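Support reply, case 0932

Customer input (verbatim):
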Amino acid sequence: MISSADDERKITALLAAVDMVMDRCEQTARTTSRSLLCWLRSVRPHGCYAKPFTFVGKAASRRKYIRLLKRFVALVFRAYRLPADIRQRRAGIRFKKSQLRLISALWSHEAWTQHDALNEQLWRSMKLSDGADVEIDQDVESTDGEEDCEDEDKDDSDNESSVVGADDSETDDMDDADDEDDKSEEEDHDRSEDQSRKNKAMRSSGGEEVPPWAEEVLELLFGLIMAFCTEEVMDGRPDSTLLVYFSGVLGFSADLTGFLPARSYTSNLAALIYIQRLLFLEYALPAQCYPRLGIARRPTLLFLIVVYP
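Our regenerated output:
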């Protein structure tokens, strides 16, 4: 099974767009109150975690986390380009009709007829709205719901801590793995460092605004990613969802002759959990609207209402 050069150019451009999608998710997190970030980090439906969700500490970790999402997006489009019978029989991948509509809309979008639309650097040079008009700031602690966080029963807190201990180690696991291959990572990163500086300088000086056709691609791409993040399990089989299928693929060793040890594999799961927390925050309370997806921007004044059964 071979992916054509033309297909790979388009996929590469889409992967560059993934960076912009995640930039927007991170911007939303930066402008979200502390109490909501505590709820984002919680694994329990009726009690928030005492500490807020935070970004990973290392730039290398962030790149690796987002790279996993890019690998998933690449899998989606490469599978889509396979003949349906081969995709289903050989790869075991079956897309739902709703997913196929989103994938097809992105793949056949008129944006790709624009000049340099397939140029990866064009996407990197675009400037997303900086959300400067969003008044809620992460550094301003909201009192809404904070008493609920602090008044959790000790037993509940202990129970959550035992589960969230894995959450606490999400960055630790990946950071430990980073230490082993930071050299090769930094070598790859250095090659694009000059371009990165140029892009940052362009953004700080105004950069290129996102044209309407690119904005539509970004919205559809975010919608596609969320369609897979919210895919329902069929017949009680988690691997019926493509995201779980993908997480299983990550468990293979590099030479495909065995499986990764638990410590190496769980860092991938931690990355997927981290990325999805940002995605779901964007999905629920975006700082900017997604009109094509029917998602409104969150209100300027946001009140946290906690309802207990």
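We compared this against your earlier run and they match. Two observations from our side: The first helix runs from residue 5 to 30. Residues 5-293 form one domain. Please reopen the case if you see a mismatch on your end.
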